[in-house]
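Following up on my earlier message about EPU. Here are the inputs again, as you asked, copied directly from the submission form:
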Amino acid sequence: MRISDKAAARLKELGVELRQGVSLAEETSLGIGGTTDEILLRRYESIPEVMRLLADEHIPHRLLGGGTNVLIVDGELPWVVLHLPTAHPGMRAEGNAAYVDASADLGGMVTFCAKHDLGGMEGLIGVPGSVGGALRMNAGAYGTQIGPHVREVELYRAATGEIETLRGSDIRFDYRHTSFAPDDLMLRVKLELPSKPFKEIIAGIKVCNEKRRASQPLNQKSAGCIFKNPPGGSAGRMIDELGLKGYRVGDAMVSDRHANFFVNAGHASCSDMLKLIDDVRERVRGAYDVELENEVIVWRN
Ligand code: EPU
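Thanks, got it. Here's what our run produced:
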């Protein structure tokens, strides 16, 4: 979607950077996605006004975080994309609290906390994506989830049109699901973390990195796990048991390393990936009578 010259001029006045005709295939870990205009929200204070402008001009929009858990349709996209700049995110430690901008890289945040002898986040070390995305999805790995450590979240709430601060106790963090509204825009988080010596944290990080390297296709284009695990079960194990590793639709392929990772093995289109997801879901339904739910967020028209 192209922003009109009039809206672009207003955005410029608000101190917003506009990037035109951006290919989201280049901004997502799957390497799939069409083109659109992108708005870089450099000053958080300007967000309410930017949002009002988008509403007044009837410009549909979506927020892209780290782009590591999203499958985006191809072609000219019907929304502009909002993005928080990722360079130099704010991170500050104070006692057992860490204050981190949502645009920070999640792994960068884990190592920042480690350097301040703040532990408890080791499991999240190899989870790709931004802190904002991790908050929205309640990212987790190796027994760690971000949710229980959250004390405050500063966010733009579309419902009120204002920047607000929510207390952690007022947010529900479930398995890969939270009570944030889809159009809430995470800005900053305050975490409370247990004190732990740096060396111990680093040892924990090493173990998680090794486990991940041994079981996940880290050097291929993917969005991590495609499906949530069903209660008490493992999507990866079921897909593997059905012999579907290596199964492909075009260049979209079930990883031969971890069956719940679907990789872009070349130039996969969004429809290849969607067909692969549907095919696998159907095979699992037929064999196990289990309906797998997407873990990856799908943006389609
Ligand atoms: N398994 C297989 N074949 C496979 C993959 C897994 O048999 O191809 C078996 C494993 O041997 C193991 C079980 O399935 O016994 C579970 O596998 P794994 O330990 O790899 O964990 P997972 O449940 O598949 C979850 C998260 C991952 C996270 C890991 C590590 C979900 C959907 N996935 O995977 O998160 O990294 O645990 O904690 O909850 C993600 O969110 O994108 C993600 C990758």
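One observation from looking it over: The helical segments are 5-13, 47-56, 106-115, 131-137, 198-215, 235-241, 270-288. Hope that helps, and feel free to reply on this thread.
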